[in-house]
Amino acid sequence: MTSIDLNSDLGESFGPWRMGDDAAMLQIVTSANIACGFHAGDPAGILSVLREAANRGVAVGAHVGYRDLAGFGRRNMDPSSDELVGDTIYQIGALQGLARAAGTSVRYVKPHGALYNTIANDARQAADVIAAIKAINPDLVFLALAGAPVVKQARDAGLTVVSEAFADRAYNADGSLVSRRLPGSVIHDPGIIAERMLKMVREKRVTTIDGIDIPLEAESICVHGDTPAAVGIAHTLRETFEKRGIELKSFAGVSNG
């Protein structure tokens, strides 16, 4: 049976400001990328989400980002290597402590926002993130943009890498994500999203914003938790896959029923 992981970025609420419906998403996804406090999230909220993930049998990953609460981690930055390595280790370590208290453990790392997009092609910043992961726990899986140079770079450095596709984001012809500043960069229709991801799983292709098909092979699919229709999109994806005989299963070895 064909299987696919379904992940979402969670734990991004901050105090009284709510971001997404984490409880509902944790009933659907198989892996949860949990904010570590630098781009979003506060310790109490993160701990609550981790406890719910543990109860649901959802695999947990550290969603590390730039130190950018005001910009939600979506602004390009150029920290020194010492800063980026230290910041990445700090975030993973913080989440490991909270996860242990919640009865679960951090199994993988997925960079967030601008950091994610930057290291896809920036070898220096990618090397810093890779070095940080290896320093704290080289057994952590690295979740990265399918087809990007960082995938080979991380594998060559000895990390286990899982390639990721984005259900609700438009693609350029070179396999990069369309900038959020441009119209059409985020896809909102659950039916359209489900059909394009079904094509990706079955045919290893995705249709770009220009209407052409490009190769795309991924083991995990992300639905952004802060997208307004996120829960509906994730539900439609799961339902579509299950009806087509595609198993929802975490790459980290945990399965959410």
Protein model, in words:
With 257 residues, the protein is α/β, with parallel strands linked by helices. It has a domain at 3-170 and 219-226: Glycoside hydrolase/deacetylase (TIM Barrel, Alpha-Beta Barrel), CATH 3.20.20. The chain is built from eight helices and ten strands. It has helices at residues 22-25, 43-56, 81-102, 113-119, 123-136, 149-156, 190-203, 230-243; strands at 3-10, 31-35, 59-63, 106-109, 141-145, 161-166, 205-207, 213-215, 220-223, 247-248. The strands form two sheets. It has a seven-stranded parallel barrel, surrounded by four helices. Helix 6 links the parallel strand 5 (141-145) and strand 6 (161-166). Helix 3 (81-102) packs across helix 5 (123-136). The protein is globular, with a radius of gyration of 17 Å.
Helix and strand arrangement:
Layout: E1 3-10, H1 22-25, E2 31-35, H2 43-56, E3 59-63, H3 81-102, E4 106-109, H4 113-119, H5 123-136, E5 141-145, H6 149-156, E6 161-166, H7 190-203, E7 205-207, E8 213-215, E9 220-223, H8 230-243, E10 247-248
Parallel strand pairs: 1-2, 1-9, 1-10, 2-3, 3-4, 4-5, 5-6, 6-9
Antiparallel strand pairs: 7-8
Helix pairs in contact: 2-3, 3-5, 5-6, 7-8
Q: pLDDT under 50 segments (min length 5)?
A: none
DSSP, total strands: 10
Distance between the termini: 16 Å
* Overall pLDDT: 94
Give me the CATH fold name of the domain at 3-170 and 219-226: TIM Barrel
Indicate the proportion of strand residues: 15-25%
The helix/strand order is EHEHEHEHHEHEHEEEHE
- Helicity range: 25-40%
SS-derived structural category? alpha/beta
Radius of gyration: 17 Å
Widest sheet: strand order? 1-2-3-4-5-6-9
Count of helix runs: 8
- CATH architecture name of the domain at 3-170 and 219-226: Alpha-Beta Barrel
Estimate the global geometry from the Cα principal axes: globular
CATH homologous superfamily designation of the domain at 3-170 and 219-226: Glycoside hydrolase/deacetylase
Enzyme class: hydrolase
Family: Belongs to the LamB/PxpA family.
Keywords: ATP-binding, Hydrolase, Nucleotide-binding
EC number: 3.5.2.9
